[in-house]
Amino acid sequence: MPSVFFSYSHADEALRDQLEKQLSLLKRQGVIEVWHDRRIGAGQDFGKEIDHHIETDDIILLLISADFLDSNYCYEKEMARAMARHEAGEAVVIPVILRACDWHGAPFGKLNATPPDGRPITQFPDRDQALLEVAKAVRAVAERLAPRGTITRDKAPGSVGAPAPKIDSAPRSSNLRVAKQFSERDRDAFKIDCFEFMAKFFENSLTELSQRNPGIEGSFRRIDANRFSAKIYKNGKSVAQCTVFLGDQFASGIAYSSSEMGNGYNELLSVDSDDQAMYLRPLGMTIARAGGDRAKLSQEGASEAYWSMLIERIQGG
């Protein structure tokens, strides 16, 4: 079966774990097998193990972020060798855009990236949907390769691009994750970080909206530490407005109100978690597009969802 190698920065390990979990069915069905450097055992040569897989694995996932681009090892060693094998037809390189960064000018920028259109995973309203798109891309490539087996098998030993000699290692599972525990302090800090990110997201979006559209003006006002408002004018007339605020004990979370005064709310995002990460879950009053109350929103996804509620009021013409 085709083998998959993860090339990534350790700063993105949490996202790599989430992606590997999304690939679980492909592993169970025998469609792929996966490897990354966390499978290197005690006493094994770190560099030799990575070199072995970068030289022999069939599918190489480049998990792209600013940290990946900043890493000399990821960029100059792993990515460079991966692209050389891709150009030689010895492997298939799939750029997976994790976080927003300037990647289009990189050597892999000419390749079709995933998720579709190279939209960063962290900017999807529902991160699970983004990871699913990556899994679909991996499955498609794996099924294309499977009929002819791995694509370096016909290389003679010692020839250019031939597999390195197999390195013996004790077999073990890559399923070594344990459930993480998040305290009330963790949840409160996450909620505040998300709110601050959202405030900056709205402020920047309103500025860009005004610059791109003649006759449209955006106004951002930070009311206090727990509340901000946004308003859009068209030819001087107010056409859309909202207030976003941190809720109280009766509505704990980040609330959206279409009223400038912020009395009541049209949607509420509360902090929730699974066994690996915290996320924002909508009450489901308005955000049906993002999966309703089943959605797991990152701070980018939550900001985009609330922004869409505001701007959709002027996009109808």
TrEMBL record:
Keywords: Receptor. InterPro entries: TIR_dom (IPR000157), Toll_tir_struct_dom_sf (IPR035897). SUPFAM superfamilies: Toll/Interleukin receptor TIR domain. GO terms for biological process: signal transduction. Coiled coil: none annotated. PROSITE patterns: TIR (PS50104). Gene3D superfamilies: Toll/interleukin-1 receptor homology (TIR) domain (3.40.50.10140). Residues 1-142 form the TIR domain. Signal peptide: none annotated. It holds the Pfam family TIR_2. Transmembrane segments: none annotated. This is Toll/interleukin-1 receptor domain-containing protein. It comes from Pseudolabrys taiwanensis.
